[in-house]
UniProtKB/TrEMBL annotation:
PROSITE patterns per UniProt: ACT, CHORISMATE_MUT_2, PREPHENATE_DEHYDR_2, PREPHENATE_DEHYDR_3
Organism of provenance: Lacunisphaera limnophila
Known catalytic reactions: prephenate + H(+) = 3-phenylpyruvate + CO2 + H2O; chorismate = prephenate
Gene this protein is translated from: pheA
Name of protein: Bifunctional chorismate mutase/prephenate dehydratase
UniProt function note: Catalyzes the Claisen rearrangement of chorismate to prephenate and the decarboxylation/dehydration of prephenate to phenylpyruvate.
Length: 358
């Protein structure tokens, strides 16, 4: 047996040497791409190229490596490649170990620079001013619906959505106290809402306190007597607060959608599996919404989401957020948007980007 183990380990060692050589060759190619991009002053991060690479490596996988493991490996390879092309900074809702931070790491890997921001508005501002190359914000949750703070900021911003990501959210109660002694629970409003039934059942007398981020709630719980926080388990490890209860979200399949913001839109070629986000206002007249949707229906463009929000310009005035399958530059989409512009006072393109796997 020892002889057989030694033989197999020697084979692994030899393969590791080859893998390292191949990886370095790949990254040298990435460096050359970075030089070409900088010379042409084009985008370093290209979401449609990333989606294409992940699809191709997934189709080449014959196992036993699981698809999720292969994707995680390639995420770090591409992260290292991006850092060689140009150092990138990504703004997220901080402090460290929030769900937004986890989403940023999952998209960009560990080789880029990350900047925690105090609020969602600060993320938009940092990207607009060039203090960060990209930003990541939550826009909706499968349990509680839209994240209002994010949607409202799209009205004024010139930023574009360049990518999206769906992430399962597992909420953990973190506290130095037993349940019987917890008097306050700190977390982001969305996290508190996603755990509403559990909190009513197990902590009916505790005060629920909305704070700017889940991780900030953990920082408070680390210092305040009788306090707890709802946050990812990673936040408890990061700030030294023990786990009091796990899986406290009301629904098992609790998923959040995050979008990534940039100063430039994704490429015109698209990935072949794209989504377009729009912001639309309507005339105050009967049938206005129906007429606004007809250009998409006639061209068999599927609306995957429609959401209304107060415009904040005048009372009872609303704007609508639309997600439509297809790319902005597709002929059918262009025709639909041209027709829509004749029917609506405002049609704002928020970006086109590869559809994220659920």
């Amino acid at each position: 047996m020892k002889k057989q183990l030694a033989q197999v380990r020697a084979q692994i060692d030899a393969l590791d040497q080859k893998v390292v050589r191949i990886l370095n060759t790949r990254l040298k190619c990435a460096q050359r791409i970075g030089e070409l991009k900088r010379g042409a002053k084009t985008r370093i991060y290209v979401a449609e190229r990333e989606a294409d690479v992940l699809r191709r490596v997934a189709s080449a996988n014959t196992g036993p490596l699981k698809p999720a493991a292969l994707q995680a490996i390639y995420r770090e390879i591409m992260s290292a490649a991006i850092s060689l092309e140009k150092p990138l900074c990504v703004a997220y809702l901080g402090p460290e170990a929030t769900n937004t931070h986890a989403a940023a790491l999952r998209k960009f890997g560990s080789s880029v620079d990350y900047r925690p921001m105090a609020t969602i508005a600060d993320i938009f501002t940092a990207v607009e001013k060039g203090e960060a190359d990209y930003g990541v914000v939550p826009v909706e949750n499968s349990t509680e619906g839209s994240v209002r703070d994010s949607l409202d900021l799209f009205v004024e911003t010139p930023l574009k959505i360049v990518a999206e990501l769906h992430q399962e959210i597992e909420h953990t109660l973190l506290s130095r106290e037993p349940l019987a002694k917890i008097k306050k629970v700190y977390s982001k409003d969305q996290a508190l809402a996603q755990c509403r039934r559990w909190l009513q059942r197990h902590l009916p007398h505790a005060q629920l306190v909305d704070v700017d981020s889940t991780a900030y709630g953990v920082q408070i719980a680390a210092k305040e007597k009788g306090a707890a926080a709802i946050a990812p388990r990673l936040a408890g490890e990061r700030y030294g607060v023990p786990v009091a209860a796990t899986h406290i979200q009301d629904l098992k399949n609790n998923t959040s959608r995050f979008v990534f913001l940039g100063r430039e839109a994704s490429g015109s070629a698209g990935s072949g599996h794209d989504k377009t986000s729009l912001l639309v206002s309507l005339h105050h007249e009967s049938g206005a919404l129906l007429r606004a949707l007809q250009p998409f229906n006639r061209r068999k463009l599927n609306l995957t989401r429609i959401e209304s929000r107060p415009s904040k310009l005048k009372p009872w005035d609303y704007i609508f957020f639309l997600d439509v399958t297809g790319h902005y530059d597709d002929p059918a989409m262009q025709a639909a948007l041209k027709e829509l512009s004749r029917k609506c006072p405002l049609v704002k393109w928020l970006g086109s980007y590869p559809v994220a796997k659920r």
